[in-house]
Design brief:
With 327 residues, the chain is an alpha/beta fold. It has helices at residues 2-29, 46-63, 78-85, 99-108, 143-152, 167-179, 191-199, 210-218, 266-280, 283-290, 301-321; strands at residues 36-40, 67-71, 93-98, 119-129, 131-134, 158-161, 184-187, 205-206, 223-227, 253-261, 295-296.
Length: 327
């Protein structure tokens, strides 16, 4: 009698487990069944916001649900990152993770989130190189000439950045280390004010992203000397890479991808990754991104995770060597 009851209990438990598994699989198969939110951890405007809205506008119809972009700025991306990390891992809260939130910030700040453990990498979208620019009044036309000119005038020149610990700051510090340059850092609150001063002659160099620099380069207001990345950019075919100019290793870019909270169901990650990668193959989207100097960089979730790890390690090493640590 007792054995019969035990058998019945085991059968019931097994059935319950099968039903629970089936429900879980059905829930994943039915994803998405309601609107999805993509957090842009910055103010409206700029590359992060552009990527959020460009991907959201095209991914929504494919998934059959509206996608709402929500700007949650503050703390250099910390506010939006924390909101994403704390969200339910159900695929309905995503975020544009980018070089700031998942590259340079972890290298120079003590953050309330772990860029690796608290997130699920879903899909890389694309990146734009950084470009070393100088005013046309500076008597240099190549990176080599710039290095020699700065070395001949140690401590007399300055360069602007969009803020301490940003990619525009760290990229120039990397060049200072590689070329042994003595040039003073002038941090600004954003790339706009930094451009204002280099155009006005208050600073003599800057290392912005190509998307921000391109209008000024085309207008002849600044001169491009070299771009990061492993190949020349199609929008600046006459500007050599740093490697071509004798400085290998400058292959970092301002990148943007889609991440979610930790422990997202693999089936949801797989679907989102496949759909986003499929979108990146479309000529219309490629043209839209290239207009902002963004080159698509499709990856698997695993490749994207390794890219993030490598980027953090790269900038952490540089920050340590240059003694850069922000509160």
């Amino acid at each position: 009698m007792l054995q019969a009851k035990r058998r019945a209990l085991l059968l019931c438990s097994g059935a319950a487990g099968v039903i629970g598994l089936a429900r879980g699989l059905f829930a994943q198969a039915a994803y998405p069944s309601k609107p999805i939110k993509i957090i842009a951890p910055v103010q409206p405007g700029g590359g992060v916001d552009l990527v959020a809205r460009t991907i959201g506008d095209r991914l929504g119809p494919v998934l059959g649900q509206p996608i709402v972009v929500e700007n949650q700025s503050g703390g250099g991306g910390i506010v939006g990152s924390m909101a994403t990390a704390r969200a339910a891992p159900d695929g309905y809260t995503l975020m544009v993770g980018y070089v700031g939130t998942h590259g340079t910030n972890p290298a120079v700040r003590k953050l309330p989130y772990d860029a690796i453990k608290d997130f699920t990498p879903i899909a890389m979208v694309g990146g734009t190189p950084n470009v070393l620019v100088v005013p046309p009044t500076l008597p240099v036309a190549t990176l080599g000439e710039f290095v020699r000119y700065v070395k001949a005038n140690p401590g007399k020149f300055s360069y602007g950045s969009s803020g301490p610990g940003t990619l525009t700051h760290l990229a120039m510090e990397e060049l200072k280390l590689a070329a042994d340059l003595d040039i003073v850092h002038v941090p600004y609150r954003g790339i706009g004010p930094a451009f204002t001063d280099i155009l006005g002659g208050q600073t003599q160099a800057m290392f912005p992203g190509l998307a921000a620099a391109l209008p000024h380069i085309k207008a002849g207001k600044v001169r491009a000397l070299a771009v990061t990345g492993r190949k020349r950019h199609p929008l600046l075919p006459d500007v050599p890479t740093f490697e071509e100019s004798g400085y290998p290793g400058f292959d970092g870019v301002q990148w943007y991808g889609i991440v979610g909270p930790a422990n997202l169901p693999p089936a949801i990650v797989k679907r989102l990754n496949e759909e986003i990668n499929r979108l990146l193959e479309a000529p219309e989207l490629r043209e839209r991104l290239s207009g902002e100097a963004l080159e698509p960089m499709p990856m698997s979730p695993e490749q994207f995770e390794q890219y993030i790890r490598k980027d953090i390690a790269h900038w952490t090493k540089l920050a340590s060597e240059r003694h850069i640590e922000l509160e």
